[in-house]
What does this fold into?
Amino acid sequence: MHFDYLIIGGGIVGLSISRELKSRFPLSKIAVLEKEADVAFHGSGRNSGVLHAGFYYSADTLKAKFTRDGNRQMREYCYANGLKINECKKVVVAKDESELPALFELERRGKVNGVEVSIIDEKELFEIDPNVKTFKYALYSPNTATVDPAEITHAIKNELKTKGIELFFGEGYKSRLEDNTIKTTTGKLFSASKIINAAGLYADKVARDFGFSEKYTIIPLKGIYLKYNGNEIPVRTNVYPVPNLKNPWLGVHFTVTVDGTVKIGPTSTPAFWRENYGGFERFSLSELTRILSWEASLFLRNSFGFRNIALEEIKKYNRTYFAGLAKDLVKKIDTGGFKEWGRPGIRAQLLNIHTRELIMDFVVEGDSDSLHILNAVSPAFTCCFPFAAWVVDKYLT
It folds into this structure.
């Protein structure tokens, strides 16, 4: 089967790129290959559901622009299609004087990026959420919201079907053949004028078959949230600590989901194979060998503080300890109310194998035959629409 564009991976990024291509080139023949039986099995259905506003990132990053625009576009998409959205907003709070410079830096970044943010005092914070505490000041983000990521991914899938894009489920990428042809896990052959690799956790592996991702590998990191089941709702807005701006994690925080459930998290624990969600589910010995080798090397050298991060993250599996981290963000809470672990997700974190540094921004490689989305980094769900437009503008027109 031959197509103009063949997208490997039916996650939110692959679907958004195919959607953008169809809007630009309505007569083009487009197919999406997805190894699972439907969409939203992995990162697109397992992320936090937060539509970030875009104030964390410095102005020279792709994330800064894509997050700002993506927040607006995704909210518009939800309202236009009757999808659930919780306009619960967000505050970033400081624990002491030492965190105030970083708090004001977030405000500066937000304003440079064109994001609506403001510094508020303790009195103003009380009016937003009386149970949240901070030291003197907090950062307020009125445009942060939460959605149901699986619902949105299914809505986009259904939209693509009505536009004539062919979706093939249960067809995973297996190998590359000649003449821009690939073979799937069921033995079928697909060829295209342009192959687009949006395979998420496997993007680096697919890219290497095409001669790309030579200096990168994906290190999978497992994220789990802990749900609150106590009697009183502890917060009514998303509450985040001031992050360490040198790493890609935002710290343990409160998220108010689209249905009003409160959860804390996430963890960011090193996973041992790409789909290491729990137990020996989808175990791969070859992945275990390769990934464990890299993680052991990073741990021993403590590259980018990996050893400290890993040891800290493992402690979060103790519910009492985990809940205690969130306790510092509020005035009172029944920590015993955190009883239920959420559905785990895996972050596909790209690592530069030469510098041993985590890649913090989007990375795309390719040539006239193929294109590879190597690092659709968090918050890729928020960014997916403008990111797809940028990919088409820069690489596919």
